[in-house]
Write a structure and sequence with these properties.
Structural class of chain A: alpha/beta
Oligomer: heterodimer
Helix content of chain B: 25-40%
Largest interface: A-B, 43 and 41 residues
Number of helices of chain A: 9
Distance between the termini of chain A: 29 Å
Strand order of the largest sheet of chain B: 6-7-8-3-9-10
Order of helices and strands of chain A: EEEHEHEHHHEHEHEEHHEE
Shape of chain A: globular
Strand content of chain B: 15-25%
Distance between the termini of chain B: 45 Å
Order of helices and strands of chain B: EEEHEEHEHHHEHEHEEHHHH
Helix content of chain A: 25-40%
Strand content of chain A: 15-25%
Largest sheet of chain B: 6 strands, mixed
């Protein structure tokens, strides 16, 4: 399987504060990879540095390569990035209202996405827009509507249609359904999965919801404090987690437990840049010892591994 | 069960909101937010209300808390019909029934110190607000005593929600209404706040009305649940039953749309979330 996205040693920092450190990540063609973590874990910054939309004073280092793009994406100038964005890489954001232009009709926005990259002629762009709306199960009349006339779920479907307009090789979704109701979420998730399957696109799916990621993705990376602390196939990570943070996260989200009290992770996620040195999770970890002051080595391969001095499940492996 | 007194009784509650007129010739259109809602919450019960945005659950809460007036119907709280009472006779309700809201940032005054925020319900009701009581409350919700000197923005989301809970508990209420209290929180913090609410309800013998869009959270917290859709209650029952064997088509759709780890690991895909028989 050829790799569509290859990220090596990605670090993001603002002034002297490290926000993301040393992230390695590959997504193959047609593969669906999840990135999970709580707020402040650096998952959105990772996505923004891939698509080159970091805020001005935030700096990325390392390497990001996308199949079909001849150059390095980290540090590429805006002119080159704007040719990549929307054609090779597309992104669906959490807030469907801010992602759409409130002064343009939906049809014009969809057509613009194709015209800007000249993937369609002026004449066929509008027909393409109707096709895209059909794809996300919106009626053809939507083409004349303005964003404010649509509900949140309908807007998010328009954003998805926009993202798929040029058949991108990589689709990034950043919490696409967090603001939606569950029944609408079910529809949008299904459309996302079907959209990438039909195009054999790679999907990088960012969420804090473990159940959603388990339903949508095949492989998952767990982020905490700007680092990838564990990665592996969904079935493995969610049944036999090795990193103590993953273990805690799973226990805390298990609402099926018969026990009235839920298992918790002590403390709260520290603000950005205030994570402890060494293992980023050590100040909240029940198993932490002195050795955790040193940064744990990555154990295992890139597709299945973890970074923990005291991994869970040692006894039964 | 018949001996347990009723804490909240809602009878055939209707709330219509007139919308602004769009034409001189036609009457103003009306939004039917609640169309005949009836429910009964026993004392000491943990009662959940589930529904998606726009189903009327917040309107229902506001009327139960006498923050809004019903168009018709009755709300009886601890034996007193509050629907037609003037504000000055609602004092008993303001002490006995307290609310925790979803967004802990917008429901806490950014210019007040935490100790003043927590003492405010006491001051408003004319009780002496002792520092002792505030320290007690901070301890109850798991915050350190020096938290009282700080401002809301100095706390994380989970801690702010603890402050909201401390404020709600200040006048020693018997009924606690929580409107989506954990929807804005991270998973690890959500578990902490749910545990806290659960412990306090047990310790202080509270009646809990818990509103959420998330049926799995309600299932964990509540004994009984009412499912709302389009201003009506479509199904009421014990949470475990409603979750395991939903009767109404809307509840069935809602339950099947919830992604769970168990189902996903058993091989469920996104198309399984869409209930069968829906226009695909």
């Amino acid at each position: 399987m050829s790799d569509v996205l290859t990220v090596r040693g990605l670090s993001v920092a603002v002034r002297d504060k490290a926000l993301v450190s040393d992230v390695d990540l590959t997504v193959g063609a047609g593969e669906r990879v999840g990135l999970i973590g709580e707020s402040g874990s650096g998952k959105s910054l990772t996505a923004l540095s891939i698509i080159g939309l970091l805020p001005e004073d935030v700096r990325a280092d390392g390497s990001v390569r996308v199949d079909g793009v001849g150059h390095e994406l980290v540090g590429a100038d805006e002119r080159r990035m704007s040719r990549v964005r929307g054609r090779d890489i597309a992104m669906v954001f959490q807030e469907p209202m801010t992602a759409l232009n409130p002064t343009m009709r939906i049809g014009d926005q969809l057509a613009e996405a194709m015209l800007i990259h000249s993937t369609k002629s002026k004449r066929s762009a509008l027909a393409g827009a109707v096709e895209l709306l059909e794809l996300v199960q919106l009626p053809a009349e939507t083409i004349r509507a303005y964003p404010h006339q649509l509900s949140g779920g309908q807007r998010q479907r328009v954003v998805l249609a926009l993202a798929l307009a040029n058949d991108p090789s990589l689709l990034i979704c950043d919490e696409p359904t967090t603001a939606l109701d569950v029944t609408v979420q079910a529809l949008v998730l299904d459309l996302i999965v079907r959209g990438v399957l039909e195009r054999a696109s790679a999907l990088l799916f960012i969420t804090h919801d473990l159940a959603v990621v388990a339903t949508v993705c095949e492989r998952v990376l767990v982020m905490y404090g700007g680092r990838v602390v564990e990665s592996g196939p969904v079935g493995e990570i969610f049944t036999r987690p090795r990193h103590r943070y993953t273990e805690g996260l799973l226990a805390a989200s298990d609402l099926e437990t018969a026990d009235r009290r839920l298992t918790t992770i002590p403390g709260t996620v520290p603000p950005a840049g205030q994570f402890p040195s060494g293992c980023v999770f050590r100040n909240r970890c029940r198993h932490a010892t002195d050795i955790c002051a040193q940064t744990p080595e990555w154990t295992g391969s890139e597709t299945r591994g973890f970074a923990c001095h005291h991994p869970a499940g040692v006894a039964d492996v | 069960m018949s001996e347990t007194p009723t804490a909240i009784q809602v009878v055939d509650l209707v709330r219509d909101y007139p919308r602004p007129r769009t034409s001189l010739l036609r009457p103003a259109p009306v939004v039917h937010a609640l169309r005949g809602v009836s429910l009964e919450v026993k004392q000491g019960e943990r009662f959940g209300i589930v529904g998606e945005s726009g189903c009327g659950k917040s309107t229902l809460l506001r009327i139960i808390a006498a923050l809004d007036r019903a168009t018709s119907g009755q709300v009886i709280v601890e034996g007193t019909d509050i629907t037609r009472l003037p504000e000055r006779r609602l004092r008993f309700l303001r002490e006995n029934l307290q609310l925790v809201f979803q967004d802990p940032m917008s429901s806490l005054d950014p210019r007040m110190r935490v100790r003043d925020i927590i003492a405010e319900p006491l001051v408003v009701q004319g009780h002496p607000a002792s520092g002792q009581r505030v320290r007690e409350l901070l301890e109850e919700v798991g915050l350190s005593a020096d938290a009282g000197d700080r401002y809301p923005h100095q706390f994380s989301g989970g801690q702010r929600q603890r402050i909201s809970i401390a404020r709600a508990l200040a006048p020693r209420p018997r009924i606690l209404i929580a409107d989506e209290p954990v929807s804005a929180l991270d998973v690890s913090v959500r578990a902490q706040v749910l545990n806290l609410i659960s412990d306090l309800v047990d310790e202080l013998d509270l009646t809990l009305v818990f509103v959420s869009h998330d049926l799995s959270v309600v299932k964990h917290v509540c004994d009984r649940v009412a499912v709302m859709n389009a201003g009506q209650i479509v199904e009421t029952g014990y949470t475990a039953d409603v979750y395991a064997a939903p009767q109404h088509p809307y509840t069935q759709r809602l339950v099947s749309a919830i992604p769970t780890l168990h189902r996903a690991l058993a091989g469920a895909t996104t198309s399984d979330l869409l209930a069968k028989g829906e226009p695909a």
